[in-house]
Design goal:
The protein is mostly helical. It has 5 helices and no strands. Helix 1 (6-30) runs parallel beside helix 4. InterPro entries: TMEM107. The chain crosses the membrane at residues 21-44, 64-87, 94-113, 119-142. It comes from Tetradesmus obliquus (Green alga).
Length: 149
Protein backbone atom coordinates (compact mmCIF):
# COMPACT_ATOMS: atom_id res chain seq x y z
CA UNK A 1 0.00 0.00 0.00
CA UNK A 2 1.56 3.20 -1.09
CA UNK A 3 0.84 6.34 -2.94
CA UNK A 4 -0.37 6.09 -6.49
CA UNK A 5 1.55 7.73 -9.27
CA UNK A 6 -0.08 10.43 -11.33
CA UNK A 7 -0.48 8.15 -14.35
CA UNK A 8 -2.35 5.56 -12.30
CA UNK A 9 -5.03 8.14 -11.55
CA UNK A 10 -5.16 10.48 -14.54
CA UNK A 11 -5.03 7.90 -17.32
CA UNK A 12 -8.17 5.91 -16.32
CA UNK A 13 -9.98 9.11 -15.32
CA UNK A 14 -9.15 10.72 -18.64
CA UNK A 15 -10.40 7.67 -20.54
CA UNK A 16 -13.62 7.45 -18.52
CA UNK A 17 -14.49 11.16 -18.77
CA UNK A 18 -13.75 11.17 -22.50
CA UNK A 19 -15.93 8.10 -22.99
CA UNK A 20 -18.77 9.58 -20.91
CA UNK A 21 -18.65 12.76 -23.00
CA UNK A 22 -18.55 10.66 -26.18
CA UNK A 23 -21.65 8.73 -25.08
CA UNK A 24 -23.48 12.03 -24.39
CA UNK A 25 -22.70 13.29 -27.90
CA UNK A 26 -23.69 9.98 -29.51
CA UNK A 27 -26.98 10.13 -27.59
CA UNK A 28 -27.70 13.49 -29.20
CA UNK A 29 -26.79 12.09 -32.59
CA UNK A 30 -29.12 9.08 -32.24
CA UNK A 31 -32.07 11.24 -31.17
CA UNK A 32 -31.35 14.34 -33.24
CA UNK A 33 -34.80 14.67 -34.84
CA UNK A 34 -36.64 14.55 -31.51
CA UNK A 35 -34.16 16.99 -29.96
CA UNK A 36 -34.59 19.39 -32.88
CA UNK A 37 -38.37 19.32 -32.53
CA UNK A 38 -38.12 19.90 -28.76
CA UNK A 39 -35.80 22.86 -29.32
CA UNK A 40 -38.18 24.36 -31.87
CA UNK A 41 -41.19 23.81 -29.59
CA UNK A 42 -39.40 25.37 -26.63
CA UNK A 43 -38.44 28.41 -28.70
CA UNK A 44 -41.87 29.06 -30.24
CA UNK A 45 -44.51 31.05 -28.44
CA UNK A 46 -47.44 30.08 -30.61
CA UNK A 47 -48.95 26.66 -31.02
CA UNK A 48 -48.62 26.50 -34.81
CA UNK A 49 -47.26 23.39 -36.38
CA UNK A 50 -43.53 23.24 -36.83
CA UNK A 51 -42.30 24.09 -40.29
CA UNK A 52 -40.66 21.11 -41.95
CA UNK A 53 -37.90 23.32 -43.35
CA UNK A 54 -36.96 24.64 -39.91
CA UNK A 55 -36.94 21.14 -38.49
CA UNK A 56 -34.73 19.77 -41.27
CA UNK A 57 -32.35 22.73 -41.03
CA UNK A 58 -31.96 22.37 -37.28
CA UNK A 59 -31.58 18.60 -37.60
CA UNK A 60 -28.77 19.05 -40.14
CA UNK A 61 -27.09 21.67 -37.94
CA UNK A 62 -27.20 19.49 -34.83
CA UNK A 63 -26.02 16.45 -36.80
CA UNK A 64 -23.07 18.29 -38.31
CA UNK A 65 -22.00 19.63 -34.91
CA UNK A 66 -22.28 16.15 -33.39
CA UNK A 67 -20.22 14.63 -36.22
CA UNK A 68 -17.57 17.33 -35.74
CA UNK A 69 -17.43 16.43 -32.06
CA UNK A 70 -17.02 12.75 -32.95
CA UNK A 71 -14.13 13.65 -35.26
CA UNK A 72 -12.51 15.50 -32.33
CA UNK A 73 -13.04 12.42 -30.15
CA UNK A 74 -11.34 10.29 -32.81
CA UNK A 75 -8.28 12.55 -32.73
CA UNK A 76 -8.16 12.37 -28.95
CA UNK A 77 -8.58 8.58 -28.77
CA UNK A 78 -5.85 8.07 -31.38
CA UNK A 79 -3.53 10.34 -29.41
CA UNK A 80 -4.42 8.60 -26.17
CA UNK A 81 -3.87 5.09 -27.53
CA UNK A 82 -0.64 6.07 -29.29
CA UNK A 83 0.64 7.42 -25.99
CA UNK A 84 1.32 10.91 -27.28
CA UNK A 85 0.19 12.82 -24.22
CA UNK A 86 -0.11 10.14 -21.56
CA UNK A 87 2.72 11.47 -19.40
CA UNK A 88 1.82 15.15 -19.76
CA UNK A 89 -0.02 15.75 -16.51
CA UNK A 90 -1.23 19.25 -17.36
CA UNK A 91 -2.77 18.05 -20.60
CA UNK A 92 -4.44 15.11 -18.90
CA UNK A 93 -5.91 17.28 -16.15
CA UNK A 94 -7.22 19.77 -18.72
CA UNK A 95 -8.79 16.94 -20.73
CA UNK A 96 -10.41 15.51 -17.61
CA UNK A 97 -11.94 18.85 -16.61
CA UNK A 98 -13.11 19.77 -20.12
CA UNK A 99 -14.68 16.38 -20.81
CA UNK A 100 -16.36 16.27 -17.41
CA UNK A 101 -17.86 19.72 -17.98
CA UNK A 102 -18.70 18.79 -21.58
CA UNK A 103 -20.53 15.62 -20.55
CA UNK A 104 -22.55 17.44 -17.89
CA UNK A 105 -23.45 20.36 -20.16
CA UNK A 106 -24.28 18.11 -23.11
CA UNK A 107 -26.58 16.07 -20.91
CA UNK A 108 -28.26 19.21 -19.61
CA UNK A 109 -28.60 20.53 -23.15
CA UNK A 110 -30.28 17.29 -24.17
CA UNK A 111 -32.70 17.14 -21.24
CA UNK A 112 -33.59 20.84 -21.14
CA UNK A 113 -33.73 21.40 -24.94
CA UNK A 114 -31.35 24.35 -25.01
CA UNK A 115 -30.71 26.07 -28.32
CA UNK A 116 -28.38 24.69 -30.96
CA UNK A 117 -25.94 27.51 -30.27
CA UNK A 118 -25.30 26.02 -26.85
CA UNK A 119 -24.20 22.73 -28.41
CA UNK A 120 -21.94 24.59 -30.82
CA UNK A 121 -20.30 26.44 -27.93
CA UNK A 122 -19.89 23.23 -25.92
CA UNK A 123 -18.26 21.46 -28.87
CA UNK A 124 -15.91 24.35 -29.54
CA UNK A 125 -14.74 24.58 -25.94
CA UNK A 126 -14.96 20.97 -24.75
CA UNK A 127 -14.03 19.10 -27.95
CA UNK A 128 -12.11 21.31 -30.36
CA UNK A 129 -9.67 22.68 -27.79
CA UNK A 130 -8.58 19.23 -26.53
CA UNK A 131 -8.36 17.88 -30.10
CA UNK A 132 -6.25 20.83 -31.24
CA UNK A 133 -4.03 20.46 -28.18
CA UNK A 134 -3.65 16.74 -28.89
CA UNK A 135 -2.66 17.47 -32.51
CA UNK A 136 -0.15 20.10 -31.42
CA UNK A 137 1.28 17.70 -28.84
CA UNK A 138 1.58 15.01 -31.51
CA UNK A 139 3.40 17.41 -33.83
CA UNK A 140 5.71 18.45 -31.00
CA UNK A 141 6.48 14.86 -30.00
CA UNK A 142 7.02 13.82 -33.63
CA UNK A 143 9.33 16.80 -34.25
CA UNK A 144 11.36 16.21 -31.09
CA UNK A 145 11.67 12.47 -31.74
CA UNK A 146 12.71 13.16 -35.34
CA UNK A 147 15.50 15.51 -34.28
CA UNK A 148 16.68 13.24 -31.48
CA UNK A 149 18.17 10.76 -33.97
Amino acid sequence: MGFRTAEEVTLPTRFLTTTAHFIAVVTILFDVRMLASQILLAGSSDTDLLAADDLMQLTKQLSSVAYAAIACFAVEYVGLFLGVSIFMHGHSCLYIVLHFVGAILTGLMYTNAWSAGALIAFVLVCNCIPAALELLTFLFVARVSYFSY
